[in-house]
Fold:
Amino acid sequence: SCHCQSSTQAATSCATMAMWVQEQLGIRSTPLECLTQMDGIKVREKVRIIEAVSALLGQEIEMANMYKVFSKGNALDDKFYAVEQTGPLFRNLKMLFGDCTPWQMDIMYAEGLGATEAFKVDRPFSLTCCCINRPVAYMKDVDGNEIGSLHDPWTCCGGLDFTVRDPAGTPVLALDGGFFQPGFWCPMPCGEMKNVRFKVKDLESGEEVGSVTKKVPSALKFMFAPDVDDYNVDFSGVAKAEHRALLMAMVIFIDFRYFNDNSNDGDTRQNVIGTLRESLTGPSS
Structure:
């Protein structure tokens, strides 16, 4: 055990040294500096094979969600990745008590070689019903300093509106998705029905400072895993790095709230899948 412990310490020391060298060479900075240097990001959700297959069989097993964050326009240059830390019990309770169930997410900084923990997002349990106790998630840095919070306020007409608040609880950014978007009510991998668009507004100046677009990545992914999406984020007009970090977390928050349910385990898709199966193999006896 002593040998294993010394090997672990040596590996940790080597990783720390490698990251220090990258910082000195300008390959790697800090999480907030990295966000400051970009005009936008692409957040790509990873397909969970077990979840997708179990949904196709009619009984989805909820697996931990994972996301990769790339610099805008470069799908090979990953800067961050996020891994859900929610336990298996609460992950699967989301299918029954979606608005009430807690979840946790670690966001890792992965610029250059190696990855270190950068942020934590915590969505605590709440007794949510319609306008009561609307869902809130809190974001902190690796040292435990609060960066801000993410809110899904009640809208009586069913609009897709979200609010970002600073550590003092002051609203700083608003995301407006409007009241009717075909891509929300009837998502398809074609035309405008593959997109859900949000305008990002600075609540101090009143100006539009960015946008978020949820996009169905491809027809194949849509059929196999319809809950997996890409998000293109433009935050070029957002001045503070902390607000950019909150926008990155808000994308995950939105995905958890509205786009994280695999519809392949629903009755309609199961009927379609059954018809396709019979056409290929013949009716079961």
